[in-house]
Amino acid sequence: MANPHIARGAAARIRTPIIKDIAVSAILFLVSRAGVLDMFPFGVAFFAACFDINVAYLGVAVIFTSLIISGAGIATVKYIIAALLFWLFDKLRPDSAKTVPIEATACGVSVCVGGMFALIADFGDIYDILMLVTEGIISAMMFLVFSKAYRLIQTRKNRTQAAKDEIVSVAISAGVIITGFSGIVFPLGIKLTSAAAVYAVLTIAYHSTLSAAGSGGLCIGFMTSMVSSDAFVSMGLMGLCGLFSNLLKSFGKIGAAVGMIGGLAAAMLYAPGSALPITLLEAGIGALLFVLTPKKLHNFIQAFFSSTLTIENVSLETRVKDYLASRLGQLSSAFTALNACFSDASEKRLKMYSKEIGAMFDEVSERVCASCPKANKCWQSEFSSTYRMVMGLLNKIEKEGVLTAAPQEFKLKCSRSDTFIAEFNHVYEIYKNDMLRTGEAITNRDLISSQYKEISSVIDGISTEIEDGFVFREDFEEAAMNETDKYGINLFEISVVETTQGQLEIFAGLGMGSDLRRAEAVFTEITGTPIGYSGTEKNGIMRFVSKAKYEIDFAVKQQCKDYSRACGDSVSVFKSDDYRMYFLLSDGMGSGKRASEESRLTLKLLTEFLKSGFGVRNSIEMINSSLCLKLTDECFATIDLLSVDLMTGFSEFYKVGAAQSFVYTADGVDTVFSASIPAGMLKTVKVQEQTKRLVDGDTILMISDGVSEAGFTTVRTEWIKKEITGLYDNMEDMAENIINTAIRKSRDTVVDDMSVIAIRLNET
After folding, report:
1. Alpha carbons 148 and 733: distance in angstroms, whole number
2. Which of 451, 440, 457, 462 lies closest to 623, judged by CA?
3. pLDDT for position 8
4. What is the pLDDT of residues 273-301, one digit of tens each?
């Protein structure tokens, strides 16, 4: 990822040294003196990680002076060449190479290349090459260590805590700096490195946690003794003393100092007669210097080891509550849309039902009442009571299936009651058969049962998703709290959710004015997945999501049937929250306004369900049972649905009575056929999924039957296969050309609505 830390030098040209360069140069001098196994890799690593490259000439001079004084001899040439090579790399590298891993690698390679020049002059055997590679690896690792420590120092004013890895980095860096004092011995054999090591361990133990004190002591103990065989003894001793100091720090600086001396005394008692790398006198001097350190300096040091962050993760209960509220809200939205569609449908249905009932009553009255002398009285002056009685007969026949006899009230009113009942039974049978022909024979009970079944399936899916469909990544949350603080990002709330497909959602509460690009970079580094800002919730929490591997280039072209004002085909394209791109094409039966309404209703419902997170199969089955409650004759619609997973490239085709689609890959052109009749014709519909794995550059073509049936040849779709293999810079040109070719093959007439969706998968 792009390195989000503060730049070491932003100037574009070499500058003259200033006062603040003195302290960094002094540290570089000490670090360059630190050696291990006759190697001095630390100076170049510190130079690359912390020294301002715009005064690199000063750093090279300091490294040269330090190595000469330390007696590095001919090896000095190796490190000077390495420093110059990294300086050159920093000046010539592109912006894309400004990342910590690349810089660390460049540092290690520079040391190896510089060492090759030295080997040319004095080559021994293969061991020299192995040691050179080892030195390059050490330099790269120390670059990372120095970078973390330097970043903590640079950002201490805006920090609320030091992360554990930063404390370890500071401890290792301190150990290397202290090693630079090697060879300086005061009277009574007091080694400056030992006293400084005690002081450093006490400082870390006093201002940090127990675990940080122990690890800091281990690091400093090892780094300050790595030139001798006592390295591991010193490491264990300083780690133990660090723990004792931290345990007694509640008694103040004196308590921490007593803990240090106590730890050393315990080691002496445990190993009587053994020569420890640190004497009581050296430990006492280091402890005394620590106690005498002014409070102001301790407060300054405290900025590097602040207490643990006070922000808290959102509780599991709250997170689950919010998630459930979100999912149920989506569920509510989908059924609200369904209700809106059927509220409108109910009004139309009532008008249609009233029209059919009125026609049936007219038919019966013409057969029975036309020659009756009381006809005018019954159907005009007493219309209300007559209509009420006839509606009573309708209710009874709908319950019993047939009228065996007229009710007593009806017999008293109608002088031809028996004839009326006989004709009513006959006309009702005709009415019922007509309803059967148009699909109305499917009972409300069956349809409601089907709807309930689909709703149950949807809710079961949500239940499974809640139980197994996601996990909260607390490891990422803890890392995010530490890392954002390093880069000056004020984070007061964090929640990281990972789905079973490996997709990440990060809900972060960031302070006003936070750098979103830097936050994206930090979250990307933590998770190892490209993360991008998605939006801000109503409560101000910002949502970040893992970026998709693929993006879609697509185009939609439609052409109405000749002399038709409305296209009977409808198209919907949208992207869901789970990194899927949906392409929907529906062809209403026939053409014109009526077909357009049918296809638009189908896609409106399907889109609402899919956006709410329902499965494709459940959504189609619910819509099919809904369309069975059709308002007019032949209210059918095809469903052609393509779902593309932008994370993996897997694509799923669902075809319900739709025309074939075409997939162009490196292996050729495949055809995807429909395995079902249009939705709304039968109570159940066969929803068969067809899956294909797509990669960068693959092309998909979705068409309506107006395109697939264009032409007058036996195999009408062969021309489409040739068109999809053509070289098109964009999908707009492909869709346009296919529509024009279809019209031309139909002798410049459009006998049916034409729709084309041209899709190409591109890797981001």
Report:
1. 52
2. 451
3. 45
4. 456 778 888 888 888 998 898 888 877 77
Question: Would you state the structure tokens that stand for residue 191, as one six-digit string?
Answer: 């080694």
Buried b / exposed e over 332-353, threshold 16 CB at 10 Å, is eebeebbeeeeeebeeeeeeee
Count Cβ atoms below 10 Å from residue 92 Cβ, excluding itself: 8
Instruction: Name every residue whose Cβ is closer than 8 Å to that of residue 432 and which is 6 or more positions away in sequence.
Output: 441
How many whole angstroms separate alpha carbon 390 and alpha carbon 358? 11
CA–CA distance, 675 with 657 (Å, rounded to integer):
7
Residues 619 and 603: beta-carbon distance below 8 Å: no
* Secondary structure string (H, E, C) spanning 59-88: HHHHHHHHHHHHCCCCHHHHHHHHHHHHHH
- pLDDT, position 243: 85
Instruction: Give the DSSP H or E segment for 671.
Output: strand 668-672
Backbone φ and ψ of 497, nearest 5°: -115, 130
Helical (H) or strand (E) element with 204: helix 192-207
- State how far Cα 38 lies from the chain centre: 49
pLDDT attached to residue 12: 45
Token pair listed for 717: 């779709």
Q: Give the C-alpha separation, 267 to 665, whole Å.
A: 72
CB 225 within 8 A of CB 235: yes
Comparing CA positions, the residue from 257, 282, 240, 165 lying closest to residue 206 is 257
- Residues in a beta bridge with 575: 581
Helices and strands of the chain, counted as H and E runs: 26, 17
Task: Tell me what pLDDT residue 304 has.
Answer: 62
Which residue is it, tokens 């090591």? 197
Q: Which residues of 506-541 are buried (b: 16+ CB within 10 A; e: fewer)?
A: bbbbbeeebeeebbbbbbbbbbeebbebbeeeeeeb
Contacts of 285 (CB under 8 A, 6+ apart): 190, 195, 198
Instruction: Tell me the pairing of strands 504-510 and 569-575.
Output: unpaired
Low-confidence ranges of the chain (pLDDT < 70): 1-13, 37, 96-97, 121-124, 156-164, 226-230, 271-275, 303-357, 432-470, 500-501, 512-513, 538-539, 613, 625-636, 675-686, 712-716
The whole-number pLDDT of residue 115 equals 84
pTM, entire model: 0.48
CB 171 within 8 A of CB 146: no
d(CA 431, CA 545): 57
Query: 313: which residues sit within 8 A by CB, 6+ positions away?
Result: 474, 477, 493, 494, 495
